[in-house]
C-alpha cells in the first residue's frame, strides 16, 4: 500500500472517470488544497470491490480524517443530503453560511422589483443614453471655445486706461474665487506680457466662466419651478437653493445614492427623448413645465449679464445698434450652450460634479492633470510652484459615477482642465517679463492651441523645478489661421 499511495489520486482520476463526490454529512470538512472530496464510483468499477475498499481507506489516511469510513457512503450513486433545520443554520458554528443563488433571488418578488427598476432606469426608461466620456469632454470643449470666441469678439482689446480706481476694484471684487483679490496694478504688473496686452479679454473670459459656474454648476436644480400646485404662477425662487442644500447633505452621507437621486431627477425634468437605439422613451410630464421655466430663466440670465456693470466696463465700446443686437444674440447662445451641457452632464451620467477654482488651485503644478497654462502665456512658460493669479476657467470633474449595467463605481472623469495665468518665479523671470513690455501677442487659433501648449510643456521638462531659467522670448507674428510661428 505504501508504494501505491503516491499514485493513488491520478490513478483514480484516470481509471474511474465516472466518480462522483458523496457526503452524508455536510459538516464534515477537510483541506481542499490537499485533495478533492472523496471520490466514489457511480457504477461498478473495473476492479474488485475488495481492491476498491483499500483505495478508499488509503484516501482517508491521506486526509488524516478523525472519522474514517463510517461517515462515507460506498453506494454507487449520489446520496441526497438530509435537510438541515433552521436551528442548525442559525446556530453559530454549525456548518458554513448558506447564500442564495442569483437565480433564486430573481424569483423573489422584492428582489425582482428592485432589479427591474434599476435596469429600466439605467437602460430604457431614462430619456437619454450619454454615458460616453468622450461626448462629455467634447461638449465642454465646445462650450470653452464659444466662451473664448465670445470674449475675443466683444471684450475690450485696448489698454484699460479709461477705468477709474473704483471701476477696477469692482471688477476684481466681482471675480472673487477666480482672481486673486489684490489691487489692479499689482495683478497687472505680475501678468505675462500677453496677459497685460489682452487684460480686457482675459477678464471678460474669466467673468463669463464665473457667471456660467454660478448659474449652472453651483446650482444643480436651477430649473425647478417650485410650484405648490397647478394654480401657483410664481413659485419659489429660493426652492432650488434649499434643494441644493438637501443634495449636498445627502452627498456627504451617501454619495452614490445622492448621484442616482440627483441624476434621475434632472433627467426626468430636463431631458427629452433621443433616437439612440431602443431608447425612445417619451418626454415626461415634468419636461413640459420645466422647459417653459428654462426659457424664462435663460432670458433673465442674459438680461442680467448684459446689464451687469462689471461686464459693461469690459465690453468693447462704440458699437452700432446692429452690432449690439449681434452681441446680445451671441451672449444668449453661449448661455444656452452652457445650460445644455450642464443639464446633459448632470442628468445623463449618474455622478457628482466637482469644481476646482482658485482656492483649490493656488499654485501651478505642471505634473497635475487639473490645469493648463493659458494660451496668452505662449513664450513665457510658467514654472512649477508659481502663484496662480487668474483662473480663467475652472477645472470640472465628475465623481461617484455609477455604471448603468450594475452598481459598480467608475474612476473619476476629468471633464475639462482649468486655464490659469501665473506670476513669474524669481527675480530673473520678473525682469525678463517686464523687459518684454506689453507687446500684443498672437491669438492662436484654437485648433493649434494644444500644439503650442504641448511645446511649452516639453520645453518645461528640460528645466529643473524651482529654477529661474527662461528662454529668450520669441518674437511672434500675428496669424489667425496657422497659429503661432517664429518670425
Automatic annotation (TrEMBL):
Q: Where is this region: Disordered?
A: 443-487
Biased region (Acidic residues) positions are 453-468
Q: What is this protein called?
A: Contig An06c0090, genomic contig
Source lineage? Eukaryota, Fungi, Dikarya, Ascomycota, Pezizomycotina
